Each structure stands twice: as structure tokens, then as C-alpha cells.
Amino acid sequence: MANGSVLFDFSGTLFRIESTGTCLRTVLGERGLVLPERELLRTAEALETAGALPGGAAPALVPEDLQEVWRTRDVSAELHRSAYTALSRRVELPSPDLHDALYDRHMAPAAWEPYPDAAEVLATLHGRGVAVGVVSNIGWDLRPVFRHHGLDAYVDAYVLSYEHGVQKPDPRLFATACEALGADPRDTLMVGDDRRADGGAAALGCAVHFVDHLPAARRPDGLRPVLDLADRQRG
Predict the structure, then answer these.
(1) pTM of structure
(2) Suppose 154 and one of 58, 66, 119, 122 were both cysteines; which one would form an S-S bond, judging by CB atoms 3.0 to 4.6 Å apart?
(3) Which of these three, 68, 84, 110, is where a domain ends?
């Protein structure tokens, strides 16, 4: 493709999930439940250590009986929910149904915040005629998140692991994205925050650029270098 193409990861690259504390506070509030502040903070910390929030911190330790479902969690919606709710259940909550409620909350568009420069970078690429794809290891449909935040118009293709039964770093997922965009991998830039998963695009001949997985407020302009890198790709 003359104008080249750019593939983006979702979580930690274009969007950041709300904190575990905010997620827990929201879910409790929706059910009219209240925890003393100290207990709420302690519970949120325990959930974060367990790795119970998709898009949040990785588990400090994956129990042996969950290692296989954790390894393959992004292959299907069922495995994704099973993996994260199992980690969540390692933490005691006021009601058993809160584990699924926490999982459901993380799929809400309002739970996600675009990085400060995401709209600018996506709009600029779109204006230059650069094809844009989103390639994500995920167990649910993230398209509503992009629509909610007004960024869907800048994305030409979504390639989500659970819809294809393949997860990054498998090169087949990146190949599917390039095919969807009509793009040559050698003219394609992959942007992500996970060196292992997103680095799998290099096996196809894609250039790869990494950003830091930080809270949105601490990474105001981490995506802007992509504009220059995309120019070099199409040059």
C-alpha cells in the first residue's frame, strides 16, 4: 500500500483501563454496597496483586491450576472470563456475584481512557491516508470503546484474538490484520507495549515500535513518534 499502514495494540497502547480501586468502587456503588475506605483500598490492592482486572497489573503469581487457562486466555471469550474471574475469586469480596460484576465493568467503554495523544495520532494518520488496524489479545468486543470515545472512524480494521482463536505473538494474527488492510507487512508498523506479544509482528517483516505501559496521565505524548515512524515506513 502506497501510504503504508500502522497496527496498534489496544490496552496500554491506545487506551488505559481505570484503576482497580475505581473499578471496585464503581461496582460496589452500583449495588448500593459500601466498604470502609481502608478495607476498600486493601481489597483493591489484593485484587491488583492477584491480576484480577484485565488491562491492569499482571498477576504476581498465577496458581498452578490456572496456568493453562491463563496462558490461553485470549483465545476465546469463555477462557478470558474464566481466567480473570478465577484470579478475582482468590480475593474475598462482600458478595460472590461481584467477581463477575468486576469482569463486566472492565468491558464498559467508560472504564477506558484514551491516552492523551491517541485521538491526534489516529486522526493524523487517517488524514494522511495511512491504513490503521487494531490488533489485540482480548476476550471481548472492544469496538464500542472506540465508538464511545469517538475514535472508531479512524480505524479501518479490528483483529481480535478471541474472534480468530489465535493470540499474539502468533504471526497469523498480524498477517490477518495486514490482509484486512490490503497492506504489505514490509510497509507496516506495529505499535504496542508488550515486547513479547507485539514483537511477534517482526516475524512477518513489520517494523515494531514499543510504548511504555503507564497510566494515561504519565504518558501524555508517547504515541506521537509513531507519526514520523509511519512516514519512514511508507517512504
Answers:
(1) 0.95
(2) 122
(3) 110
